[in-house]
Amino acid sequence: MTSTVAKLSDALSREELRDLSRASDWQGALMLAGDLALLIAAFALAIWQPWLSPLSVLVIAGRQLAFAIVMHDCAHKSLFRTLWLNEFAGKWIGGGSIDAPFLAYRAYHLEHHKFAGTPDDPDHRLVEGYPVTRASLRRKFIRDLTGQTAIKEIAFSWKDATLAGKTPFLVFQSVLIIALSLAGGLWAISLWWVARLFVFPALMRLRNIGEHGVAMDRYDPEPRRNTHTTRANFIERLLVAPNFVNFHLEHHLFAAVPPYNLPRLHRVLNARGYHAGFACVTDGYPAMLKKAVRA
Fold first, then answer.
1. What is the mean pLDDT of residues 97-117?
2. DSSP letter at 250?
3. Could you tell me the pTM of the whole model?
4. Distance CA 218, CA 136 (A)
5. What is the distance in angstroms between the CA of the first residue and the CA of the last residue of the chain?
6. How do the residues of the chain divide into helix, strand and coil, expressed in percent and rounded to 5?
7. Neighbours of 160 (CB within 10 A)
8. Handedness of CA 81, 84, 85, 90 (dihedral sign)
């Protein structure tokens, strides 16, 4: 089926876009509270029944990804309507949790949006060579799941570290340690680091592949060709696609649309035939990974 929708304005009116782009402090707070609640629940589960720690690690890694997405959305000033809430959550929760400098990330990420679909996109290195052979994809995930990727990234981030730059990370870790100590489960801080070292990098790779690695043509300025959306089920949303990050094509079309409005934007565009004729949407992460492998 060939798309008859050549322009976004043919599928979406200005009034609809204005409504979809309206950020809300309470919706942003609810999304962030959900991420924090799941993190607390994961720790509580492991402290209550230590034999369930592997499940807790998976949920914690998913929340680490969720906090990375919080930083991403706050960098676009789209999670909250109030500017200072975006700045605070982006720096102290999003960036602090994964040890990423918020302002530097914003500058870098906006370059990605500015140059998407061109050779100047700084994120090309994240998905270079896709689709890859099955053996190559396996090696990449083995590096992630054995901690090699994380150790390399962490070593690089501390190479020229300053106290000011690391303060959000140190504060976040201190809050975690204090909270777990008060809960009588200080040992559970190890679960955070197991997730960070051995699971989070694989989730980040999965995210990058799903966003641009399986796109039709990363060097085409047409968003439907250089960016990709993966529809996620409940389990995938819990573990690998938090905060609606899977609707990446929609995010690239309108970066100002808050994450909680991306599913509605996707439904509207899909119903009006905007995706038709483009291999820009895949149902589920297993099917998406099949696209990442050369036939």
1. 96
2. H
3. 0.95
4. 20
5. 23
6. 70, 5, 30
7. 7
8. positive
